[in-house]
Amino acid sequence: MEYGRRKKKIGDILVSGGVITNDQLNRALEIRKQSTKKIGEILVDLGVTTETEIVKALSRQLGLEIVRPNLEKIPEDLLGIVNGGLLRKYTMVPVGYAEGNLNVVRLAMADPMDMDAIDDFSIVTNLQVEPCISTANEIMLAIDKYYGDSEALNAAEKYASERKARLADLENEQANSDIENSPIVILVKTMIEQAARQRASDIHIEALQNKVRVRYRIDGALYEKMSYDIQLLPAIIARIKVIGGMDISEKRKPQDGRITAIVDRKEYDIRVSVLPTVYGEKAVMRLALKTGLQRDKSELGLKPDEMAKFDHILSNPNGIILVTGPTGSGKSTTLYTALSELNTEDVNIITVEDPVEANIDGINQVQVNPKAELTFASALRSILRQDPDIIMIGEIRDAETAQIAVQASITGHLVVSTLHTNSSAATVTRLVDMGLESYLVADSVVGIIAQRLVRKLCPHCKRKRLATLDEKKLILAPNLDEDIEIYEPVGCYQCAETGYFGRIGVYEIMEITPALKRIIAKEEGTEAIKQQALKEGMSTLRMSAAEYVREGITGITEMLRVSYEE
Fold this sequence. Notes:
By secondary structure, this protein is α/β, with parallel strands linked by helices. Helix content is 40%, strand content 24%. The protein is built from 22 helices and 18 strands. The strands form four sheets. A seven-stranded mixed beta sheet has the order 12-11-13-14-10-15-18, with helices on both faces. Strand 2, helix 7 (115-125) and strand 3 (128-133) form a beta-alpha-beta unit. The longest helix is centred in the first third of the chain and has 31 residues, at 136-166.
């Protein structure tokens, strides 16, 4: 147990392991004098190494096992012997017993040389410790997974008992809801941290008849995570209004706000919407990583042939590029990725958005403000006098905006925007329905990308089976007589029993070729446009999704959810 590790310091180990230089260590030590952060965190913040590199180096130098506690099934009895507070304090979590010895606990630690942590754990549990090593992020995820619900419930119970004891009026309660260590503050903070760690995109706090229901949207589907006594609702909503900069006394009108939260050193931009409902106010918080929308285009999930088309469309010097699909289909991510790709020093990019979803360095972003008479159309008129090369319009919502977009593209600008339509071919018809002349649409649009997101099957528990004849037809199997293996979701502790983990984009990319321009100009209709695009090698959403099913990446139900044509 004594390893002679007491004297060793993480910094020295990383230098001797060749992970960082002496200069980098000295710079981090200087920063540490004015900071409460640990040396490892400072080195990661400086960008000189990563959590994973530190873990590997410590494992090599100290001969410790690397574990992934959020993927381990931790025994129930082990979870009950220590509370989450102590584990959070030291960033550690028990992952199991040592082989053949129930008196020794394998303890995943972010800092395995923290002897105080080991001593405190031993004193509380009366068990010996065998340290293992893991990243702080994975440890916090495991603590959330196994202790988060009980911690949130404790905060709720504590609030309820305090409320009974005080019997103060509601206004006093709401005034007190800003005290940093009050149970409601802890409850809301825990809710946001859990959601961020579980990859949730939205938190729904709903007032039902006799309870408050909390649901997280993970990979596009809602899951109930917690329910509280309905009496907690006013205080939870009041706290959200306080941190979201809303009017705490206004309970009859919808309100919008914004919160910035830092979870595990990542900054989240949270858009909040509060809406009065029959049983009380409902709050929805949309979580977005500040850097989350700017991805490398290789992360979008485009197949090689789709990537080639995507690049070709983006290389147009002028014209309109449209990304279409319903809400939550990843349009903004695709747009921002395209903009980041085009964002070089020699071009002037201006965006008009409602609201601005993420800030990108080097791009001029304008927020629509109807109260100040700054609409999409009025902003666009001003933008055209700002000498832009590339214009991004958050969404084409009306004929006026569409008209200006077309004129801007014809006069030598590249315009990228989104539209709510079901397919690439239907987008052209929608523009004509908005009142644009078909020859102008044919002349200005250079490419349309229709997209959806499908959930990926959890690689740890997906189950293989043979497809039935009907299923073979659905997934467009080239030969119906051959056996085809497909996978279906099961659910395990690693995917929180959902059967899915993560999402991938499904695309239908239509480049506007001379032949398509002629069909559009003659107004031959959606079907004629689609047939011509298919002749030219376009894959429909159904074809792209079916390929993912055949490859075992997703299941048939997901494919049918996103591609309901044919």
